[in-house]
Design a protein that fits this description.
The complex is a heterodimer of chains A (405) and B (140).
Chain A: H1 2-18, H2 21-33, H3 41-63, H4 67-110, H5 114-131, H6 134-145, H7 150-157, H8 162-168, H9 177-190, H10 193-205, H11 213-245, H12 252-298, H13 312-330, H14 335-346, H15 350-361, H16 364-367, H17 374-400
Helix pairs in contact in A: 1-6, 1-11, 2-9, 2-11, 2-12, 2-14, 3-9, 3-10, 3-11, 3-15, 3-17, 4-5, 4-10, 4-12, 4-13, 4-14, 4-15, 5-13, 6-12, 7-11, 7-12, 9-14, 9-17, 10-12, 11-12, 12-13, 15-17
Chain B: H1 2-20, H2 27-52, H3 58-81, H4 86-111, H5 116-137
Helix pairs in contact in B: 2-3, 2-4, 2-5, 3-4, 4-5
The chains are: A mainly alpha (405), B mainly alpha (140).
Chain lengths: 405, 140
């Protein structure tokens, strides 16, 4: 019974952690610009994060090594420092975008000022980090993030063309650069580096060992899978609401309006609550992810499982990253544009993030009987190849399509 | 060697700056700008429709109308600052005028987000302005 409960909670946490501002924005924009033909990119990205999350959780359960420890061990000083710098830069940019997004969402409820609510958001995130235990953080934001299922209901209520949706899951050859820009963005949004850093460090926080293989598998496959269903729902609902009206969603409010059209004010409020907690969860994930990476690279004691005051360097870096994200958000930079940059420019860093997982996952000396099986090997290296191709294609597509416009 | 590298960097930077600044506005740039106006008008019309039917939250309608209005104003500033001649110049001026009207109508939603009457009027106006933007971009 206890295991079932842990699985259920982990699944919910994975859903909450998966849909962040990048997913919301890219799915809505892809729906508005491309429509159903972009759908196939979502499961491609989701399967990728499932494969790597399962592998990194298994490595933690066997070797107790989170992802950045693997980076440090496998890359040597210079490359691991470069990977750290790149991942910190992108994670803090993402954190700034998440905080900016929270400022907008809170302002939709009270209409005071976005800057004021960015301050409220950062204080709220800091309070949640300080007062809630690690499991509590995941559950609060995961449960409340489930309000995003309003998009699932909306996509059905809006009476879509199911045949078109079915055809959307079949990749098609396409000449338009904008189409490929969104395909690449959708895959990348699912594979953001901070997600895997947080997942593996979270597994250490929760003390996984070899008895937790089932929990790892269900979290990775079910949790990210249901997160993928949410992504598809947002894309489908946006295709039905925004595309026919010729609307390009340039802010969080446009994404919220997609639920308002079928359900009125109630739909709007449920969507805003879902976005608030999903993005709030991602804010905490990104802040932790940056602090985990720095601490693991520097060999500091780290983790929420210890009292924060007992590990001042980790605590200070966590606070510092929150402040850096706050400073970025307070510059007034558009969080949607910031997200687009963070998603697209995270792609060149993806190979550096995922390679150590593959190298350790196949190492029988480390993994023993839990070494990667044939399916993990094929999928892992297949996705690694895809990531390398995307790493080259993403910046080119970004420039050639003027950011998908 | 270092000096040669610095000179090459300076030339490259100057080339990038030269290509990015100044010059006449191209039809595709104008089409993108008008597309932003059309999108904002369409979204404003959708929002106004929900205001008219009392199907939205007043704080959301006000804040979102403000965001859309700011985006339109920003686009108008960019259009105003750009140089253009011939047909592109004529359409650019029309786009600036259109942006002003869209922004003004969005301002009405912002001022009275709880008024169903204002919502209906704004919906009609924004739909019309969005259509005009679509026609303005045709053939660019």
């Amino acid at each position: 019974m206890k295991t079932v409960l842990r699985i259920a909670l982990g699944v919910i946490a994975a859903i909450g952690g998966f849909v962040d501002i990048g997913d919301l924005v890219f799915n809505a924009q892809a729906g508005a610009a491309i429509g159903y033909p972009a759908l196939w990119a979502v499961p491609v990205g989701v399967l990728g994060i499932m494969v790597f999350a399962e592998m990194s959780g298994r490595i933690v359960a066997v070797a107790q090594k989170p992802n950045f420890v693997l980076v440090k061990e496998r890359y040597g000083a210079r490359l691991s420092t470069f990977t750290l710098a790149a991942s910190l830069l992108l994670t803090v940019l993402t954190l700034g975008a998440e905080l900016g997004g929270l400022g907008f969402v809170l302002n939709y409820f009270f209409d005071v000022s976005v800057s004021f609510f960015i301050l409220v958001a950062v204080l709220g995130a800091a309070a949640a980090i300080y007062f809630l235990p690690f499991g509590g953080l995941e559950r609060v934001f995961g449960y409340m993030g489930l309000a995003l299922f309003v998009y699932f209901a909306a996509s059905i209520k809006l009476d879509p063309d199911w045949g078109e949706i079915g055809r959307g899951f079949v990749p098609e050859a396409h000449g338009a650069a904008v189409y490929w820009y969104f395909v690449v963005g959708l895959i990348a949004a699912a594979l953001m580096p901070y997600e895997i850093y947080f997942y593996s460090s979270g597994a250490v926080e929760e003390g996984w060992d070899e008895r937790d293989m089932k929990i790892n598998r269900s979290n990775a496959f079910l949790g990210f899978g249901i997160g993928g269903v949410l992504s598809v729902s947002i894309l489908v609902a946006s295709t039905q609401v925004l595309k026919p009206a010729g609307i390009t969603p340039d802010n969080v409010g446009s994404v919220a309006m997609v639920a308002e059209v079928p359900y009125g004010e109630l739909g709007l409020i449920v969507a805003l609550v879902g976005i608030l907690f999903a993005v709030g969860g991602a804010t905490i994930d990104t802040a932790f992810s940056a602090a985990y990476n720095l601490a693991q690279h520097q060999g500091w004691k780290w983790g929420k499982r210890f009292r924060l005051l007992d590990e001042p360097r980790f605590t200070l870096s966590l606070a510092g990253f929150l402040l850096a994200g706050f400073a970025i958000a307070q510059t007034g930079v558009d969080p949607i544009e910031l997200t687009e940059y963070a998603v697209i420019f995270s792609i060149p860093v993806l190979p550096l993030t995922y390679l150590p997982i593959l190298l350790v996952g196949r190492d029988r000396q480390v993994m023993g009987r839990y070494v990667n099986g044939p399916l993990s090997r094929v999928l892992g290296w297949g996705y690694f190849g895809l990531i390398c191709v995307l790493a080259v294609a993403a910046p080119v597509l970004f420039v050639s399509t003027n950011g998908g416009s | 060697m270092a000096r040669r590298r610095s000179a090459a960097f300076a030339i490259a930077a100057a080339a990038v700056l030269w290509s990015g600044c100044g010059g006449l506005m191209q039809p595709d740039e104008l089409a993108r700008s008008i597309g932003t106006l059309e999108s904002s008008a369409a979204e404003g019309a959708l929002l106004a429709r929900d205001v008219a039917r009392d199907r939205t939250k007043a704080t959301f309608a006000r804040a979102h109308a403000r965001e859309l209005g700011e985006a339109v104003d920003h686009e108008a500033e960019k259009l105003q600052d750009a140089s253009a001649d011939g047909e592109v110049g004529v359409r650019k001026s029309a786009a600036v005028d259109l942006a002003g009207r869209i922004s003004e109508t969005l301002g009405k939603i912002q001022t009275a987000p709880g008024s169903e009457e204002e919502g209906r009027s704004a919906q009609r106006a924004l739909t019309r302005l969005g259509d005009r933007a679509g026609r303005l971009a045709e053939g660019l």
